[in-house]
Amino acid sequence: MPEPVSDNELIGRCLRRDEAAWRDLIHRYRRLIYSIPVAYRHADPDEIFQTVAVKLFRNLSKLKKRESLGAWITITARRECLASKKKQQRSQPIEDRPEIEFAQDPPDLAQDLFDLECEHALLLAMEKLDALCRALLQALYVEDPTPPYKEIAERLDRPVGSLGPTRGRCLGKLREHYDALGGEPR
C-alpha cells in the first residue's frame, strides 16, 4: 500500500491545477469540515462545507503554513458557521428570536480546536495503516457494538489467538504514525 501523500505535496499539486490532488485534499478533510457545522448544530452542513471548500480553493496559494491546513479549515468553518448564524438572526424578527441564556458557559474553542486536530491526526494515522490493522482496529474500537473476537477472526481470516498480539502491534504502528503527524497525547 503506497504511503499517503503529505498535505504539503497535495497542496503543491493543487496549485499546479491537478484535479485529482484537489479531490484527494477535499476527501482527506471532508470529515473535519463537516464536523464543525454539525458541532455548531448548523441547519445546513452542506452549505458550510461548500463555502469552506470554495474559500480553500481561492486561498490555497496564500496559505503560509501548509502543515497548519487542518487548523485553517477549522477556523474558517467556525467563522462561516458564526457568520451564517448572525445572518440568519438578522433576518429573523426580534419576537421570533430565542432568548439568550447567560447561565451557559461559552464553549472552549481552543479545546474544541485541539480535539478536532487530534481526531484528524488520528484519522490520517489510521489511513497509513495496512489493511489488516485498519480492519482490526476498526472492528475493535469503532464498530458499535464491538463484534466478538471469533467474528473478527473469521472476517480477517486469522486465528482468534493471534488477534491480541496483532492488536498490540497495530496500536504501536498507529501511535508511530500519529506521533509523526504531530498528534498530541490524550
Which whole number gives the mean pLDDT? 82
Characterize the quaternary organization of these chains.
single chain
Fraction in beta strands: under 5%
Shape: globular
Specify the helix fraction band.
55-70%
Description:
The chain is mainly α. It folds into 2 domains: 1-95, Rna Polymerase Sigma Factor, Chain: A (Orthogonal Bundle), CATH 1.10.1740.10; 108-186, Arc Repressor Mutant, subunit A, CATH 1.10.10. 67% of the residues lie in helices and 0% in strands. The protein is built from 8 helices and no strands. It has helices spanning 7-15, 19-39, 45-59, 69-91, 109-128, 131-141, 149-156, 163-180. Helix 3 (45-59) crosses helix 4 and helix 5 (109-128) packs across helix 8 (163-180). The protein is globular. It starts with 6 loop residues before the first helix and ends in a 6-residue tail after the last helix. 17% of the residues are buried. The model has no long low-confidence stretch (mean pLDDT 82).
Q: What are the main properties of this structure?
A:
globular; mainly alpha; Rna Polymerase Sigma Factor, Chain: A; 186 residues; Arc Repressor Mutant, subunit A; 2 domains; 8 helices; 67% helix
